[in-house]
Prior knowledge:
Blueprint: E1 3-8, E2 11-15, H1 22-26, E3 31-38, H2 42-52, H3 56-63, E4 70-73, E5 78-87, E6 94-103, E7 107-112, H4 118-127, H5 136-169, H6 176-197, H7 200-204, H8 220-283, H9 295-318
Parallel strand pairs: 3-7
Antiparallel strand pairs: 1-2, 1-3, 4-5, 5-6, 6-7
Helix pairs in contact: 2-3, 4-5, 5-6, 5-8, 6-8, 8-9
Transmembrane segments: 266-284, 296-316
Subcellular location: Cell membrane
GO molecular function: cobalt ion binding; cobalt ion transmembrane transporter activity; magnesium ion binding; magnesium ion transmembrane transporter activity
Amino acid sequence: MARTRRYRDGVLEAEDFPAEEIPRHLAEDGVTVWLDLCEPTRDRIAAVADELGLHELAVEDALFEHERPKFHRYDTHCLLNAYAVRLDRRSGRLATAELTAFVTHNALVTVRTRKFDMDAVVRAWDQSSHLAASGVPFLLHGLVDHIVDTHFEAVQALDDHVEQLEDLVFAEHSTNEEMQRRSLAMRRSLVTLRRVVVPMREVITPLLRRDHDIVDDVMQPYFQDVLDHVLRASEWTESLRDLVATIRETQLSIQGNHLNLIMKKVTGWAAVIAVPTAVTGYYGQNVPFPGNGEPWGYWVSTGVVASLSIGLYVLFRRRDWL
Length: 322
């Protein structure tokens, strides 16, 4: 089902009216219309394109999924493509929801997937209804502001996950398998987030250009605030990617140091054990030797084994090899 809204001079007059009435409403003065299509068919988008005069390339971008976030300007309208995101805090996996918007001077048409939370956008419009007199820029701001907010929330949640990873690196009972699993999930989510966050700078910046005449003076500060959030989210995402890589390198370094410590201790104990092995092996030869068959020979060999073993143990302990 298509969702619709009609504003006249900044006042919400009607909503959820038939989409077929949109051309008639657009012919009236002071009217701004919003049309929302959730996973529409090709024929449905084609019908809307004929009514609003949308470019065929823009319609093609709306039909195909996994388009890159972008902003294109055509003769009669503009095309905006972006992704809202949501992070599963338990698994650390990032889910995306694609949206395409057609922007004309008095209409906004959104084409989205079911995962996109359009109700949150509508609530944002209702909460800032005092800006509705700006028309399409008002609707467009509520849309991109919601999208950027989801990016910011995801970055903040990922930052919390990174802090947990940092604690896990130095935890005594953490397992290497758990660290690898969480690090891999984190890096995958950050790669996905970077793919949808970084291009948003190219989406928001053209909206602020005076020569495009898309955003009026009233909405300029609000779009500038959105751009600031985009830049912060982009920089934060990049720093988190570097931090996750550093955490992984730190974990490998700690594992290497721990392995070296174990090898050092094993080597030290092997040296200590080698002394009695050498002495007893020598006296175990089937040939006569000093003290052979005499009690003092047994005690001398035992004393040599004990003294040399204790001496090596004390020496290795002083050098922190054991």
